[in-house]
Predict the 3D structure of the following.
Amino acid sequence: MTKQLLKGNVAIAEAAVRYGLQAYFGYPITPQTELLEYLSKRMPELGRVFVQAESELGAVNMVYGAACTGARVMSSSSSPGVSLMLEGLSYIAGTELPAVFVDVMRGGPGLGNIAPSQQDYNQIVHGGGHGDYYPIVLAPANIQEAIDYIGLAFTLAEKYRSLAILLIDGCLGQMMEPAELPEMQPVRTVYPAWAARGAAGREPIIHTSIYLNPLDQEKTNLRILSRWREVQAKEIRFRGYYLDDAKYAIIAFGTAGRVALSAVRAARNAGIKVGMFRPITLAPFPAQAIRELSERLEGILVVEMNSGQMLEDVLANTHNRAAVEFYGRPGGNIPLADDILTEIKRIAQGKSTLNGHPRDRWVDRMLAANPGA
Amino acid sequence: MDEFSKETLVYERPNTLTDFTTHYCPGCTHGIAHRLTAEVLEEMNARERAVGVASVGCSVFAYNYFNFDFVQAPHGRAPAMATGVKRLLPDRIVFTYQGDGDLASIGMSEIVAAAARGENITVVFINNTNYGMTGGQMAPTTLPGQVTTSSPHGRDVETAGFPIRVSEMLSTLDGATYVVRRSLHDPKNIRMAKKALRIAFTVQERGLGFSMVELLSTCPTNWGMTPMESLHWVETKMIPYYPVGDYKVAPVVAEIKV
Amino acid sequence: MQVEIMIAGFGGQGVLFAGQLLAYAAMNKDYHVTWYPSYGPEMRGGTANCTVIIADEEIGAPVVGYPQVIMVMNRPSLDKYEGIVKPGGFLIVNTSIIDRAVERKDIQVINVPANQIAEKIGDKRMTNMVMLGALLANLPLLSNEEIAAELRTHLPQRHQNLIGANIQALEEGARFQQEPA
C-alpha cells in the first residue's frame, strides 16, 4: 500500500471498514460529520449496515443492540453528542459488551463551539456515565495513528469485552496528512459464544446490565475491575521524544502533544534539555512511566486543550517529586508552539514550584494576560 | 371436537416460555400478554430465531420468562436497540416489549423514529395508564382525572396535559405497516389480541416493516382495585378513550391469512 | 526544513483546493505534510483558509502563529493576516480585488492581479492557480510540473478539460518572481 493524503474523519471511517466494521450508527455533529457522511455511502455499497439515528441516544442504543449480536460495531460523535451517549456507554459497559466509539472533541461546556478542544478527557477517561466502568481510551496524534488505533480499538474492545474509545479533537478530524490504510480484511463470520443471535439448539442468551441482588452486582463490578487490571498490566502505550538526557519534560496527548513537539524542538535549539512524553492510552494511564519520569526530572509541564484535566492524573503520579506546571488553552483554542516555548523557558529558569496547585498558577497568568476575563 | 371429553392434557407452556413464576401482581394482564406473545412465536416455530428486547418498567424481567435470546434496553430505548439487533440479524424475529411510560414518555423519540423508518420489528405495547414498576405514577397515557401517586387529585389536563393515543399517532407515519389496539379484559378481546400479534409478527417475518400491537392492560395494585374491578375499568373507562381498532393496516397486510 | 503556508480568501476562490494541491505534491515528493482547514461558522461566513506545512521531519503543530508564507485572495484576508506573516516571509496579494497596499516593511510582498490574469486566460476560477504559480516561483519547494501532475489526478472529471488553462495560469503567476533583495 502507498501513502494517501487523508482527512482524519475519513481515514478513521475507511480504516474501520477495512478492519471489518459490520455496522455503524451515528448522528450528525460537527466536527465529526464527515465520518458519518463517508460511511453512509461506503457501508451500503459493501452490503454492511449504516443507520443515521434519530439522536445520539438512538445511535448508542443501536450500537448496544448490534453489539449484543457479537458484531464489530461503532459510532462516532463530538462532545455534546457524547454527553448524550453516556447513558448507553454505561449500559454497554455494565453488560460487558465490546463496542468502539470515536469522540471528535470540540469546545465547551454547553453548546460551546466546533473548534478543536480536549474538554472531554474527564468525561471519557473517568467514566462520565454512571457506575464503576473503565473504557479503554486511545489518543492518536496524527492520521496514521488514528488509522492504526481504530484497528487496535476493535481488537482491545473484543479481547476484553470492553468499551474502546478513540479520543481525538476537531483538528485531527479535519486535517489531512499522508497515511497508509490497512488492507481490506474479511468481515467476521464466526461469532463469540456469548453472541445473542437466536437460541438455535441451546439455552437462551440474555444480555442485561441489571443485577437486582446487590451481591450479584458487586460480583459483576469485581469481574469488570479484574478485567481492567489485566488491561492495565498489558495494554499501556505511550511515546517519548528527546527524553534520554532531558531535565524537563512536557506531558501532552493528541493535538496538544504535536504542538508541544514543535515547542520542544525549538527549546532544544535554544539549548534547553527538554523532552516530551505523549500518552497514547489515556486509559489505562501510563502511571508507572510518569512516576519514573518524575523521579529523574527537575520539572514537568502538562499541556492540554482544556483547563487541566489530565493534569490531575499526572499529579497523582508525580507525588511532588518533580515540580509540575500547567499550560492549557480551553474553549476551542489550539495552543501555539511559541507560547509553550515561553512556558518551557520559564521552567528552565527555575520559576516552577512545588507549592500550591499548578492550575491556580496557570489561571493567575491567564487572567493577568486577559484582564477582561 | 372431543378433546374436552377426555382426561388429556389441554394446557401446557409453549416452548417459548420458561417455567419461571412471574413476579407480576395478581390480576395483572402482563402474564396474558406474555403468554399470547409466546404462543404466537411457538406457532410460528420461531423460538430459535427470536430475539426479544426488554424495556424498563414492570416487564424489565421479561427475559426471565421467555425461553429464547433476550437483551435488556435502557429506559425507552428498546426500539433503537431492536434496530441494532435486527439490522445485524435481518432473518431473526426481533421484538420489543414496552410499557406506556417507557414507550410513550421517555422513549417517544425512539418509537416514532423506528416506526418512521419502517424498521422491520414488532412492538408489543402494554398500556395500563401508569408507571407500574415505580408504584403507580402518572404516565402519558393516564386518563383525565385519573388518580395516581403523582396526580393525587386526578390528572389535571390544565397542568399535566392530555393523554397520548399512541396507536393513532403512529398510524400517521408512512413507515408503519401494521398498528392496532386490542384489549385484554375478556376472552373475546384476548383472542382478538392474539390474532393481531400473529399478524404483527407475520408482517415482520415477511419483511413488510414496522408492526405494533397496543394492548390495553390492567394494573390492579396501583389502581387500587380487585382484578375483576380492573377488567371492568378497562372496558368502561379505557376503551372509550382508547378505542380498540385497526389504526394502520397497509394494503399488503391483507394478504396475511391467520 | 519546515515551511508554513497559509492560503486565505472567500469561499469559492479555491483556497482549500489550492492548499490540497500543495499537500499532494509535497507528499509525492516524500515530504512530511499537513493540511488544516478552517471549518464551520468561519467557513459559512464566506471566508476560508487553510494552513499547509511542508517539512523533512515529523510535523508537530499543524497550525502556527506566524506562517512564513501567506497568500491572501481578498481584502478581509489581508486585513486579518498581514500582521502575522513571519518577519522576512512572503505575503502574496491578489491585487485585482484588494484595494489597499501592504503596510508592513519587514516582509516580502508579491502583488499579483490574479483575477485579471485568470479572466484573460478564460476563467476566473483559475485565480487560485495564478496565485499558486506566484507562490511557488518565490518558494521553489515544488515545481509547476509537480502541481500540474496533481491537477491531472485530483481535478474533478468535469473540469479535466481545463487542465491546459490551469497550467497556463500557474505559469502566468510564476512571472511574478520577487527580485532578490
User: Anything to note?
Assistant: The first strand of chain C starts at residue 2 and ends at 10. The CA atoms of residues 91 and 109 of chain C lie 5 Å apart. Chain C has seven helices and six strands. Residues 2-174 of chain C form a domain with the Pyruvate-ferredoxin Oxidoreductase; domain 3 fold (CATH 3.40.920.10).
